Amino acid sequence: MTAATETAALPRLRAVARPNRRWRLVRDRVLLFTVILAAWEAAGLLGVDPIWVSRPSLIAERLWSLALTGDLWRHAGRTVTEAGIGLLLAFVVGVPIGVAMARYKYGNAVAEPLILGLYSLPRVALAPLFIIWFGIDLFSKVMMAFSTVLFVFMLNVHEGLKTVDRDLVDLFRTMRASPGFITRRVLLAWVVPWMIAGLRLGVGLSLIGAVVAELIGSSAGLGWYIERAGGHLDTTGVFAGLVALMVIAMLGNAVVSLLERRFSAWRGA
Amino acid sequence: MNDGQPAASAAHEHRLSTVPAKIAVEALDIAFTGLDGAEVLVLDGLDLRVEPGEFVAIVGPSGCGKSTLLRVISGLLPPSGGRVLVDGVPVTAPPPGVGFMFQRDTLMPWATVFDNIAVGAELAGLTKAEIGVRVPELIGFLRLAGFEKHRPHQLSGGMRQRVALGRLLAYGPDLYLMDEPFGALDSQTKAVMGRELLRVWATYRRSVVFVTHDIEEAVTLADRVIVLSSRPGRIRLDLPITLPRPREGRALRGDPVFSRLCGAVWDALDLPPIA
Question: A–B: how many Cβ contacts below 8 A?
Answer without folding.
Answer: 56
